User: Which sequence fits this backbone?
């Protein structure tokens, strides 16, 4: 979008917002429609697909055995990776993850890790030797804004759908055996992103809104309603008052989604 | 490495998943499913789940890749990390680089590239789940994505493999048959021009067996071509219905 | 992973390094220490030792990164291999890529980027020794480097973290508190505009605790801002003295 | 070559071909002169140099010990790599192998692997622990077309020339001992490439022919005259009839080369 | 610097040199002021900062345990890396080390390695299994010429300041224990760089001199006054006579610096 | 690391391969052997087998590398994976990057680069088999390749090493002498201008030993220079014969 067209679009959007309206007729604090499917990739130990309006995210979980980190010998490993797959947008290019993909992966990771959703101690097979590695691969298939919330939601849904391989230890070697045991999550964090456009706070920005927003804040809320991760983004700022408003909004919207998901 | 321990064809002549030797797996095709792409398609073929999307025609970037006498097709075949048994690193493997090249070579003959000098189109094929024969299924979906993008084509392109398992020539090998069987022959066809645009072979076949496998693969291609046409028709009927509303 | 074994606050309510909960570590700021850079600053904050340098404004290179409606700020936050306990590979980690991005987003709001279209500035932050809170200390130094480079700013930017250790909300976490504590909230502020330009959180806080931590971090920012002003003043007094000689 | 000059060249070539002639006076199904030298790199465990007209390929074999792949614990490892060395052509650039080099390596690999030329079980030292790794490095030194056939031939010739290090197992560690044992090949696959130019099939295309060809097909033939690998390349197509003709031609030419090589 | 300005600068410099003078009033064989601080990075096992005029180099030493190279199972590992940190000069760009940084690292490495300053046998913990790895990271913080001498000096100073972790071997595993033991150096090599400008030899070229020099030679001198490494650089040449002069000069200047450093 | 166990000089004062201390290995030089290159040469020096090829002069690509006041020489010294005892990864090592640089610096003084502004030449040196002294042998071959490409030169460049093994100064070290010996001094010379364009040293030599080694290396250079001239003469005699036919 060239600068001048962007400015006209921004004007229109601002006029709408000043009346409490948005491009797609949503209210300022409404999410777009959320659709969730789990288990669609049978090859993966867990998977989920989330549509957030036209934004489409597929998350696949793979389980491998590996070595623990030296400083946490009795803990399994959680690895979150995000690919902005080039078929999802004319703006995505093939190649290793850039700063945008890395930010999404790290914000999703933080929500899961800090909420202690996964008990990493339970992923330990033999302290210092063998642990389970949980690969969370976030695959963006269509980009229409708010990739963080959709990715975080799909990641948790895929983990809820994950089956861990059974195993035996025989003469110091790990042997994977028949069958699976479900992975249990201790928390189901939900991340809510709020954009600031022309000094208004709007929930779940679509792509066109992201293109004109001042800044955004993403807040992950755990089962108890506490905050377990925050990320401010974008080349703008928030006032203290706006931060307070945003955290309140995030808590409400997270509860709403939690109810909808049945979590 | 091909192993021979498993029994791939039972006493009744049926395969592990109950198919007859010349039977295709179930195929599901959908056209136009990715809103941002200029053209897109989705294929399920057995347990394969594959997306193809096209962006273009557009100016080539970087410019020095443009050609003054034709359109350039760039193609990336890529597997999702979770599409296979052991997690695959998202960095492109040598296998993916080679397959991207042969897929490109299989589709270019169908496009009037000479009519659109200096432009380019980007084709992305993402394997979400792999079950043997992903390059063929990817080509079949990609041709639909190109068609949906409105890029003028001489013909569609459709692909299917045949091969040999347990001394039998079979159609459309699934993952285990591909790995444990003794030969695999993926073929791509422009069905109305009777032109073979992809042909590879792994394994060992004597010339007669090869001819049998090739003919069987071509038969498979023609069956899938009917489904391609159906999928395009469905798409445009739906489109018309939407427009008429 | 946060562990809870260590006692981070003693019976007198003091922290491992003897600080009170709302006390900053000692801060040392110097402006204009790298002769080749257009602007530079050095910060010590506890055991953190960090350099920031600015080159520009200048023509963007490569040109396609220039923007017709504003100046582009590029930012690289980087840790020296010897800055941490286990030697760090000099190749940028994912953590460094993310921090580079949030630091850039924390500084851009303070620069009149719209007044200098088509130009760019490069900001480099090098962590020579790390002791928790490097992104905040890096922002504090970077703002001084930008100011010294003569780039017009709406306001300075100053950053400080607060967090929770042993059930207490504390200011300016050092390395062990960051690793073993239960939450960390780094904040950057434009102090005269009362605008928060960086906000992140790790760990778990209920809404009240979060508000308490945020307010404490903002208090910390304001204290450090006074030191920033002092450092700039010292620099320009020295400069004046040099000129008058 | 610019588009217009290419077109004139193509015209000339097509006129020749319609009379059954080629630029260098060969018949349509003739190979250029083939020269083979073995053992010219004494440092390598095996080596061979092939000239195919002006095309020059050097293959060196290095043997190392390593770990087997987890899914084939009792099999050695074969690795084929191809470098389009920049001194071989103004079109080759330094850097990691691109798609052209990767295709050559993989087609050469397929011919050797699928013909079962190497008994990988015999490369196993201790199942699951130690195996021999055979590195086949294809080095293109001058590029005048048909790199695939020349590379495949040089690779097999270098393997025929390869000596495997002797070893002992002592207390679970492999010790390389004095002397060598020749590597025995169970098959000597020969790859024949046929280009289609103006609807004519020509064997062993030189560079100028490759620049105007529609497409090419490379067919590897094992000792028994069976096909053990095929690769179609180029942005054109073949008819079923042409494929049949090509496989027949490939079998004939492979036997001819096999005789010439004394394999 | 554009070509024409460079030529004017060069003329000025040459006129000065013909009178035995330099831009900054130094004599032809004078070093700029050298300042050395050791131990400024407490986190590192060793560190030193050297100012050579406005050139500023920081070297940090990290010690890790690792495996020895197969061909030297009883020797520790020395690794020198150089980063031309982009804040040091408008000409430095972020990214992996280029040829300039690699040359500095390798010349510094050679001076230390060839003078046998470090007894690598003493870095062996358990032959074939565990050794100490000494990482010497050269960090260029401000570039005003003669990076090689400043880097070599800072590297030796940092090694002189290095403390090795104590350890015990328990059941075949290495356990790092309390306390440290100083690393002892068997030699303290000093590297002297001499540039040739307009057929004059000048010691310790500053950046402006490097920009117009024909060539340079860097000579490392060990404690006994022997030469332990040489590197000629730059797109010019030296006569045999100039080489002899340079080695004599290098020996004198190295002794001078050695005295100044108290080494 | 230099080890001292092996006896490198026997009682008669001869080296492992029977050479006297001041004796060169056998050298074989061929000019113009790669048809596609603008200039090329092949050298065997003991067991070293090395190819050098030149492409150019030509327009620089990418353009921003061109220089308005001179020709740019790019140089890549590279070892084949099979050229050494343990297979070498084909990716350029730090050693190869450094040697590429010093080789370039050793050849540029011989070329009238100032006469061909904005152009570039690419020099590729491929070590097919390595046996000590590859950089010197590579330079000797590269100078012939540059000459064959018709690029005007002030002088040829020729290179040879001397060093110290078992307390003796020796000429032209082979692999074992290089690894086990106590010093190695590679030197490149423009023989008619008496100009040293490459000089490196590894190991320990006192100033007198160094001077002795340098002088011996220069003697070696002059001997090889005669062979270079011979090789060029042979090439052009052959060429004349071809033309006269």
Assistant:
């Amino acid at each position: 979008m060239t600068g001048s067209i962007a400015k006209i679009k921004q004007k229109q959007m601002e006029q709408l917002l000043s009346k409490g309206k948005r491009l797609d007729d949503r209210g300022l604090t409404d999410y777009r429609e959320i659709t969730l499917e789990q288990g669609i990739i049978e090859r993966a130990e867990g998977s989920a697909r989330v549509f957030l309006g036209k934004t489409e995210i597929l998350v696949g979980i793979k389980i491998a055995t590996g070595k623990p980190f030296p400083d946490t010998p009795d803990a399994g490993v959680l690895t979150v990776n995000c690919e902005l797959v080039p078929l999802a947008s004319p703006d995505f290019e093939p190649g290793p993850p850039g700063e945008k993909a890395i930010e999404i992966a790290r914000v999703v990771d933080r929500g899961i890790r800090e909420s202690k959703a996964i008990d990493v101690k339970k992923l330990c097979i033999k302290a210092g030797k063998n642990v389970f590695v949980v690969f969370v691969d976030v695959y963006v298939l269509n980009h229409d804004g708010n990739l963080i919330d959709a990715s975080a939601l799909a990641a948790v849904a895929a983990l809820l759908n994950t089956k861990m391989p059974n195993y035996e230890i025989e003469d110091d070697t790990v042997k994977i055996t028949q069958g699976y045991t479900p992975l249990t999550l201790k928390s189901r964090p939900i991340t809510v992103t709020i954009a600031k456009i022309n000094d208004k706070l709007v929930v779940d920005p679509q792509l066109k809104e992201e293109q004109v927003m001042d800044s955004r804040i993403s807040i992950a809320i755990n089962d108890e309603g506490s905050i377990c991760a925050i990320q401010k983004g974008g080349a703008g700022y928030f006032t203290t008052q706006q931060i307070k408003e945003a955290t309140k909004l995030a808590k409400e919207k997270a509860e709403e989604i939690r109810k909808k998901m049945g979590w | 490495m091909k192993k021979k321990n498993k029994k791939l064809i039972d006493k009744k002549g049926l395969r592990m998943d109950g198919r007859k030797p010349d039977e295709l797996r179930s195929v599901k095709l959908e056209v136009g499913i990715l809103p941002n792409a200029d053209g897109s398609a989705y294929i399920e073929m057995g347990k394969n789940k594959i997306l193809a999307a096209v962006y273009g025609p557009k100016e080539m970037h970087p410019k020095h890749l443009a050609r003054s006498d034709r359109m350039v097709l760039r193609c990336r075949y890529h597997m999702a990390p979770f599409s296979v048994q052991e997690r695959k690193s998202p960095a492109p493997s040598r296998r993916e680089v080679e397959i991207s090249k042969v897929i490109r070579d299989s589709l270019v003959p169908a496009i009037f590239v000479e009519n659109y000098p200096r432009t380019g189109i980007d084709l992305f094929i993402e394997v979400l789940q792999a079950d043997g024969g992903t390059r063929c299924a990817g080509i079949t979906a990609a041709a639909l994505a190109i068609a949906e993008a409105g890029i003028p084509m001489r013909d569609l392109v459709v692909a299917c493999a045949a091969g040999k398992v347990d001394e039998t020539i079979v159609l459309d090998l699934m993952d285990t048959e591909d790995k444990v069987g003794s030969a695999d022959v993926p073929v791509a066809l422009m069905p109305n021009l009777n032109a073979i645009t992809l042909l590879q072979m792994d394994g060992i076949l004597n010339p007669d067996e090869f001819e049998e496998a090739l003919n069987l693969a071509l038969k498979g291609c023609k069956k899938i071509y009917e489904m391609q046409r159906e999928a395009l028709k469905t798409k445009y009927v739906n489109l018309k219905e939407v427009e008429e509303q």
User: Anything to note?
Assistant: The domain at 33-261 of chain E is CATH 3.30.230.70 (Ribosomal Protein S5; domain 2). The mean pLDDT of chain E is 95.
